[in-house]
């Protein structure tokens, strides 16, 4: 979370003039603990996936002969682009993201602003409470919510039924939004905290000056606070875009109790299903395409907003 | 030295490391060399690795180890990610001597060259007579090889709430036609009561129903697979359940074995369960209050075709790379046909044996208190002997099952039919086999 106040830390580029820079050995010693795992557990797997995505399986000696892989050009990618399940899953989480991300970030922003007002009492309590869902692992949260959604076990559904309503949280149309609700519950507090930290770093003098000029609390919030913390809002949006594209745990858990979540519900679930069928090359190609889409969307969004947000 | 140079060098090192790692991953050149298995006993003490998913299996192995100081077996429980663990071990060339593999995954793993043919050992071929016929045809792929020994099975039967059937004066159905009629009567008598549930996310269960109707989903001849997932027999089963779903005579919102499923049974909302032998303890342990209300009767039949189906069960496979085939055969045969071992596996792991001797175990010959002291295992033993021996699984079964489930879920939600789901599964089978360069064609 060091990116929250970028301007405060990025001044270390200047060095002492003349010789006497750090010796290579020292640099390597300090960087190795980072670089070794980075190479082994990040670059190598990514490189391996990239390499796999250009391979196709061939076989000699008939059905139970020996299989091997060979260069297949863009064969795997052609299959990804022709796979309607893939585009369906992208469309599904596209819809998810367009609705869930703005709702979640708006709620997070409002909560952060409320926490920042001098009017609110018991701040520490509210801050911790709002942040607490983030401490619950995603899978556990999804299991918890799946009990609340289940028509057989849920006290919530039971209450609805007592007043004559029969909501089906796991139905074909509703289940995407039930998953979105779990994500929102999990991540709102986290995003709120990032925005709240940014609010904390605004100097009080600005507010005093604004008050002298006759600004109300409302004006201060929307005209001063929000524009100043815009970089954090952009940051949380980018995190949310990445999180949406990688959505897996919530729908995968809800799938245990609802057949309306297919094995190809999200792009990551599709990649996993394909890999579990021993088609690693196709799964690799799907993963690469997801990664490219994620990069384009997050960097595209950052570029689009960088001027306005002052990044 | 300037910082930039160091950074460049580090990047170069990183890139080089990546390349080395990639080179290490590249596949070996294709070779047609058939691994001729030999069956010579080892000199001196041997240690075998056996990976499994059965609770309490370590205790069974302890018993063996005590009796056989020269053939020691080490177990590892891989139930967390059975096929992932096996697949990775195979890729790394570190597979165990013996491993637990479900019947439906045997062709897929054989396609990945996972097994060694143990038929070089006379003890392995001689074991054939010890097992229920259909299980042997699965582990030998209908041929003369021995790639695994059967361990347990899931012969299917009908679990019925006899009290509910009695209350509404409905005879326990013996054919699927009678079952559908009973479904209607029950629903009419009490609209909140259904005869059973259809779990769209359970292809394994549905496959058992297809198996019962002698649906041949795959066959292998002329050097290629013939894919007939959407055969007439399969469609008959699909149509049948489609009608029950469309008539709202079965629930489609419950997942097999889920808390929700037990809750529905607990609330007397469902009157029967089309299940397998291993399910007898599920009901006993999860619905203790319904003790004495359940009976187990033979699965409803398709008219003149009196055969039964199987749902689940697994084998212990001879894995490629094992250097102790003789000892593996010896242990594997004991593990899966010795009455003492079978009794322990049944007691600790709930396994329903594939060995004929196992069907006569004392524990499986007694009446079961939960089921009104009925001898329910007689029903399962009878079912096991009536299972079609010609049924074969496909080499990409997992992918086909997922496609089938996704399409069945759509059908249950009113989008398409179960017959469409069979077509989707057929298409997925052909596509996934093509992706793995497995020669296949549609139709017989």
From TrEMBL, chain A:
Coiled coil: none annotated. It comes from the Bacteria. One of its GO terms (biological process) is transmembrane transport. It is a multi-pass membrane protein. It is found in: Cell membrane. CDD domains: TM_PBP2. One of its GO terms (cellular component) is plasma membrane. Residues 1-20 are annotated as: Disordered. Keywords: Cell membrane, Membrane, Transmembrane, Transmembrane helix, Transport. Pfam families: BPD_transp_1. The chain crosses the membrane at residues 24-44, 93-115, 124-149, 169-187, 228-249, 283-302. Residues 90-301 form the ABC transmembrane type-1 domain. Belongs to the binding-protein-dependent transport system permease family. This is Sugar ABC transporter permease. It comes from Streptomyces olivochromogenes.
TrEMBL record, chain B:
The keyword Transmembrane does not apply. It comes from the Bacteria. The keyword Cell membrane does not apply. Keywords: Signal. This is Sugar ABC transporter substrate-binding protein. It comes from Streptomyces olivochromogenes. Residues 1-23 form the signal peptide.
């Amino acid at each position: 979370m060091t990116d929250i106040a970028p301007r405060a830390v990025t001044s270390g580029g200047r060095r002492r003039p003349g010789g006497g820079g750090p010796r290579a050995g020292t640099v390597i010693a300090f960087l190795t603990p980072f670089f070794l795992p980075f190479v082994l557990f990040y670059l190598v797997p990514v490189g391996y996936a990239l390499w796999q995505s250009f391979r196709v399986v061939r076989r000699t000696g008939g059905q139970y002969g020996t299989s091997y892989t060979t260069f297949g050009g863009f064969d795997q990618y052609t299959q990804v682009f022709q796979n309607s399940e893939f585009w369906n899953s992208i469309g599904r989480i596209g819809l998810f993201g367009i609705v869930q991300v703005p709702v979640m970030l708006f709620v997070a922003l409002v909560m952060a602003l409320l926490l920042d007002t001098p009017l609110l009492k018991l701040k520490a309590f509210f801050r911790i409470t709002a942040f607490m869902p983030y401490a619950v692992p995603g899978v556990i949260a999804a299991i918890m919510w799946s009990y609340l959604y289940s028509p057989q076990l849920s006290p919530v559904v039971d209450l609805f039924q007592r007043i004559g309503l029969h909501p089906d949280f796991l139905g074909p149309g509703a289940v995407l939004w039930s998953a979105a609700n779990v994500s929102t519950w999990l991540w709102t507090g986290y995003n709120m905290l990032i925005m709240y930290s940014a609010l904390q770093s605004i100097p009080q003098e600005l507010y005093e000056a604004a008050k002298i000029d006759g600004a109300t609390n409302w004006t201060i919030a929307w005209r001063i606070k929000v524009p100043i913390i815009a970089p954090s809002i952009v940051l949380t949006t980018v995190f949310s875009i990445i999180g949406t594209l990688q959505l897996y745990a919530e729908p995968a858990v809800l799938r245990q109790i609802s057949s309306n979540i297919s094995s190809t519900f999200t792009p990551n679930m599709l990649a996993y299903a394909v890999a579990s069928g021993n088609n690693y090359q196709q799964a690799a190609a799907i993963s690469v395409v997801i990664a490219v889409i994620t990069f384009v969307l997050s960097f595209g969004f950052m570029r689009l907003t960088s001027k306005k947000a002052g990044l | 030295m300037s910082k930039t140079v160091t950074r460049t060098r580090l990047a170069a090192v990183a890139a080089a490391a990546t390349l080395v790692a990639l080179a290490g991953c590249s596949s070996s050149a294709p070779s047609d060399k058939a691994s001729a298995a030999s069956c010579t006993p080892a000199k001196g003490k041997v240690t075998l690795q056996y990976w499994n998913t059965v609770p309490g299996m370590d205790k069974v192995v302890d018993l063996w180890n005590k009796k056989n100081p020269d053939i020691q077996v080490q177990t590892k429980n891989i139930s967390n990610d059975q096929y992932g663990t096996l697949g990775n071990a195979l890729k790394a060339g570190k597979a165990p001597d013996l491993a637990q593999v479900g019947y439906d995954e045997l062709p897929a793993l054989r396609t990945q060259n996972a097994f060694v043919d143990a038929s070089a050992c006379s003890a392995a071929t001689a074991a054939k007579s010890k097992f229920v016929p259909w299980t042997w045809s699965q582990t030998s792929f209908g041929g003369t090889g021995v790639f695994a020994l059967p361990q347990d099975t899931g012969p299917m039967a009908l679990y019925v709430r006899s009290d509910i059937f009695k209350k509404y004066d409905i005879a326990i159905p013996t054919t699927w036609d009678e079952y559908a009629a009973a479904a209607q009567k029950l629903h009419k008598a009490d609209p909140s009561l259904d005869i059973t549930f259809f779990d769209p996310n359970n292809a394994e269960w549905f496959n058992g129903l297809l198996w019962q109707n002698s649906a041949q989903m795959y066959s292998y001849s002329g050097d290629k697979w013939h894919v007939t997932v959407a055969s007439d027999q399969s469609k008959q089963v699909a149509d049948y359940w489609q009608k029950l779903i469309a008539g709202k005579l079965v629930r489609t919102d419950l997942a097999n074995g889920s808390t929700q499923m037990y809750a529905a049974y607990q609330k007397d909302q469902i009157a029967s369960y089309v299940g397998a032998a291993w399910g007898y303890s599920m009901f006993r342990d999860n619905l203790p209050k319904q003790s004495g209300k359940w009976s187990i009767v033979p699965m409803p039949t398709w008219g003149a075709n009196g055969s039964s189906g199987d749902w689940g069960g697994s084998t212990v496979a001879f894995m490629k790379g094992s250097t102790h085939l003789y000892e593996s055969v010896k242990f594997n045969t004991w593990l899966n046909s010795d009455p003492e071992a079978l009794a322990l596996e049944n007691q600790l792991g709930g396994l329903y044996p594939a060995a004929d001797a196992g069907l006569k175990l004392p524990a499986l010959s007694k009446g079961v208190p939960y089921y009104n002291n009925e001898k329910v295992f007689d029903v399962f033993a009878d079912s096991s002997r009536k299972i079609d021996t010609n049924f074969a699984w496909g080499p990409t079964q997992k992918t086909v099952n997922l496609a089938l489930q996704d399409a069945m879920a759509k059908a249950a939600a009113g989008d398409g039919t179960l017959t469409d789901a069979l077509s989707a599964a057929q298409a997925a089978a052909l596509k996934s086999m093509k992706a793995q360069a497995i020669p296949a064609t549609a139709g017989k």
